[in-house]
Amino acid sequence: MAYIWRLFKKLFIFSLVVSGILIVGIGYYIEFQLPDINALSTIQLQVPLQVLTRDGKLITEYGDKRRIPVPYDKIPPLLVQAVLATEDQRYFQHPGIDIPGLIRASLILITTGKKIQGGSTITMQVARGFYLNPQKTFGRKLREILLALKIDHRLSKQKVLELYLNKIFFGNRAYGVAAAAQIYYGKTLDQLSLDQYAVLAGLPKAPSALNPLANPTAAKKRRDHVLSRMFEVGYINEKVYKTALSVPVDAHYHNLQTQVKALYAADLVHQQLKQMYGDDVDTRGFLVYTTIDSHLQEIANQAVRDGLIDYDQRHGYRGPERNLGSPNLSGMQEWEKILNTIPVLGGLEPAVVVDMTSQTVTALRSDGSLIIIPWQGLAWARPQINANFLGPRPHKSSDIVKLGDLIRINKPTNQNWRLAQIPKAEAGLVTLNPMDGAILALVGGFDFQYSNFDRITSAERQPGSSFKPFIYSAALDQGYTLATVINDAPIVVENPTDNSLWRPQNDEKRFFGPTRLREALIHSINLVSIRLLDQIKIPYAVGFAQRFGFGPSQLPPTLSLALGTASVTPLQMATGYAVFANGGFKVVPFAIDNIRDNQGNILYQAKPLTVCGDCTTPDNTHAPRAISAQNAFLITSALHDVIQHGTAFEARSLKRNDLAGKTGTTQNQVDAWFVGYNPDLVALAWVGFDQPQSLHEYGATAALPVWMNFMQVALQGKAEHVLNQPTGIVSIKIDPLTGKRAQSNDPVAQFEYFMTPYVPDEDKRPTATAAQPGDANSAAAATPEGGLY
User: Fold this and answer.
1) What is the pLDDT of residues 97-153, one digit of tens each?
2) What is the pTM of this model?
3) Which of 87, 144, 519, 752 does the annotation list as catalytic?
4) Could you tell me if 252 and 213 are in contact, meaning their C-beta atoms sit under 8 angstroms apart?
5) What string of DSSP letters covers 392-416?
6) Is residue 466 annotated as part of the catalytic site, yes or no?
């Protein structure tokens, strides 16, 4: 008996030693071999990148996972209770692992041979979600258990629960409870009801099978189970329980609620962010505040959309997108399904013609409703024979469409429904703050969903006559004046490479003789511009143009440069005109104002070079001077007259005296431009085809209306702001024929601005009694803008 007792004591001691070694080993493994869980306190969850306007309105977000991290104290207690009642009832009592749950799962495994239950606590799910793979192996389960013990020891219960509720997947790209609330109910967490909390709490078990959108019956059954568990453990009373059970499952998919359409600007910002922070920028939860002004952006969107639709309708109707056959009740239900697969582009909805009278069309919309298009919305649709020739005017609806035609429709504000079509041409508009280069609005095309190519920042096009102000500015820099007279007469230029001859023309193939530079710029006279460039020398003009931000490779070293044969982006053109608008300073366009983390801490703040015209000693925070203040004032004075008397005279309808600008049309009317400004705003409109072909319209017809529609609203209620006349500028009466200083008693003398070093001498000729017919002043006044040749 003594022997057995001694043996028992030895086995007991041995067991204690082995157990101690095992405990020490497990402790060592937990402490040093398992991952360091200290990072959980500050872990960065994958949160999508959000791009906002400068006034905080959401443009879009990037990232596959929609997640809105919320701290524990912002998570409603009812939601916490719903989760605990279903997932881990003893959460606040156990040390990270639930021994009864593990034993129960083990017994089921032993008796059935199947891994039906894992006995995982919320802490174990956090360990698995952050550190382990989802494979169901005994080794992974052991690590999961040990990690859960370590996590529970280091972190508070509230912190672990916060991690869990922000990490788990709820289906439909929703990660975390806040994102799930937005996607399924379009609400914030504090706006949900008990039954909705129960739906969310039931989802993590099987986000696809129990999804309230895909399987509402299964979702309701799971919700009711969650509610019954809450009732059983005493979180809710019987009355609340039964009331929640009676509520139908009302989940619906809620897409991202963007507030401003500025996807071209967002895409530009997105690319810049990747260069700054790398390709993982979409998951780091950045809040990017752009320079985009939400009000100006919406105006720009509308101006481009309306301008393109108007241009497109001026060139006729190309017919329906396709025909879906004859209408019947079952067919209309199928048509509704088809319509729901077709995107709305530029505000133009898809619809199907289901009925007609002689002068009305009834169309089915994607929501199943029927609308009537009256004759006023149909009469424009003359058939397009080609881009410049239209067929006969329609007299009845059947001249335009047939039953079953898939068409586009739109409803302008306060108007009836109209027949429409997706424009083939494209357009863009950009507006800058000329004092610092901030991009305030950017529209790179008709619709980003239709084409994501940004024509403002990426398309290099010929600017045509809108480039002429840079040539004239170069001439002023050499001592020419706006009163300098150059002969508008034929010119022939030989190409030494192939001995061919270039015979440039004014648009109407007329010549006006001696013409002052102001008049030549106002009326965009080609031959004067070519002769001027020839006189100031091409290399000088090319070098001077680079002061405005153009690269040397973009500027052809030929006389055709005077007619705008450079290859430049619209953004470069707008930046170049900003030099005139701000009094002569070169600003750099930028679209990112600041970048913040999801806690609101500023990670980056833009520090643009700003215009400081009154500074006596500008420093490196100020924009460098590109041209003199006097030069900028004189060009602005001439471009002001482009609107008052020249190719952009239609803009006089804006009834403002502080606007200046220039039209541009390239050879064969391939590109149409208008760039205009005052000291507060530079705006550029461009219209053209992606695959170059003739618009059959000038810049004054195609692009100027887009610019006008934008500026009319953008400047509404704003006081006029005229560029101040700088020192060194004087106003002198001149003879309009010679450009010389007029005699004091000259009845036809006109005032002109001059830089003080270049004031002209007095004209000694006899005093004229009136402007002679056919002189440069009267003839040029009727000259339309010239094309490229």
Assistant:
1) 776 665 665 565 556 555 545 568 887 787 777 766 666 655 556 777 778 787 777
2) 0.84
3) 87
4) yes
5) PPP-SGGGT--TTEEEEEE--TTS-
6) no
